[in-house]
Write a structure and sequence with these properties.
GO terms for molecular function: methyltransferase activity. The chain is of the alpha/beta class. The chain is 31% helix and 29% strand. It has helices spanning 29-33, 35-46, 106-115, 130-137, 150-162, 176-185, 207-223, 242-256; strands at 3-4, 13-18, 21-26, 50-55, 68-74, 80-84, 87-91, 120-124, 142-147, 169-173, 190-195, 225-235, 260-266, 285-291. The strands form 3 sheets. The protein has a 7-stranded mixed β-sheet, with helices on both faces. The protein has a 5-stranded mixed β-sheet with strand order 1-2-3-4-5. Helix 4 links the parallel strand 8 and strand 9. Helix 3 crosses helix 4 (130-137), helix 6 (176-185) runs parallel beside helix 7 (207-223) and helix 7 (207-223) crosses helix 8. The longest helix is centred in the last third of the chain and has 17 residues, at 207-223.
């Protein structure tokens, strides 16, 4: 990530770099008005092949801005290559989620990949396979990727093939809660379970319901995590602070009748800095537990 909004002194502006393609999202009226100047500066500094505008965030409506996705400079003719922790993926800057890839999970994916070596891993809300494929590349015995998006799973399957791990990676299309319910009901148990959902709390009015969603997700995930196995839970809702997230995960464990210990609590990588006066800029929370 080149620019991370307020923490980098540019409120509402996100710029992600994919090699010679830049993807920019402007979520404030000021940054929207500066589009031309920003593109000129990026061209002068980095000489990109293309600059894509992913101005399709609903928050733009709060400032009277229309949503749009378009190529502002150059041309993009399809998915673009991404390399992370030695693994190769494809990202769709025009049609994928956010800017096409979630760079913020880079360090967490590396940690989970090492944890999964020699073990089976279930990656729920996989998107394009970031956690699961890196785990397979690091030596996981078998990986199943779960997502409701067929296009995302297609990109994940292509990435598995590109990284030479297709024989150990399976994709499963379905809704996360329903899949976890079904697999738990059928007696499945996994050594490593990853649940990395989209934001459950997009506004303060959703806080109570969203918090319950994290507790339910932790309960279902804990139910299918084997004894001695690892549950890796994440939240990207900036309205949910780290203490509340940890409380809901703990509640989910209690509801599942499980106990364990926290091995790691984490956030985003250093290219997603936190503003010292804006605690909500620490939006990504991760908890890795070993369950008894």
């Amino acid at each position: 990530r080149l620019v991370h909004a307020e923490a980098d002194g540019l409120p509402g502006l996100i710029i992600d770099r994919y090699g010679d393609v830049l993807v920019m999202q402007s979520n404030t009226a000021l940054m929207d008005r500066l589009e031309g100047a920003l593109c000129d500066a990026l061209e002068d500094l980095l000489k990109p092949r293309a600059i894509v505008l992913r101005n399709d965030s609903a928050v733009r409506g709060l400032e009277g801005l229309a949503e749009e996705v378009r190529v502002a400079r150059g041309a993009v003719d399809g998915p673009i290559a991404v390399e992370e922790n030695g693994a190769r993926f494809e990202a769709d800057p025009l049609g994928g989620q956010k800017t096409g890839w979630f760079f913020d999970q880079r360090d967490n994916r590396a940690f989970v990949a090492k944890l999964a070596r020699g073990r089976r891993l279930l990656d729920v809300y996989t998107h394009t396979g970031g956690f699961g494929i890196q785990a397979a590349l690091a030596g996981a015995e078998a990986v199943t990727l779960v997502d409701r998006s067929a296009p995302s799973l297609e990109l994940a399957a292509k990435a598995a093939a590109a990284n030479g791990v297709a024989d150990r990676v399976t994709t499963a299309r379905g809704e996360a809660f329903a899949e976890l319910e079904r697999r738990g009901g059928e007696g499945e148990r996994w050594p490593v379970v990853v649940v990395d959902p989209p934001a459950f709390v997009k506004s303060k009015k959703d806080l109570a319901a969203g918090a319950r969603g994290y507790a339910k997700l932790a309960r279902l995930a804990a139910r299918i995590t084997e004894r001695g196995g690892f549950l890796c839970a994440f939240s990207c809702s900036h309205h949910v602070d780290p203490d509340l997230f940890a409380e809901q995960v703990a509640r989910g464990l209690v509801d599942a009748g499980r106990t364990g210990r926290i091995l790691r609590q984490s956030g985003a990588g250093p290219d997603h800095p936190v503003h010292p006066l804006l605690p909500e800029s620490a939006y990504l929370k991760g908890i890795v537990l070993q369950l008894d």
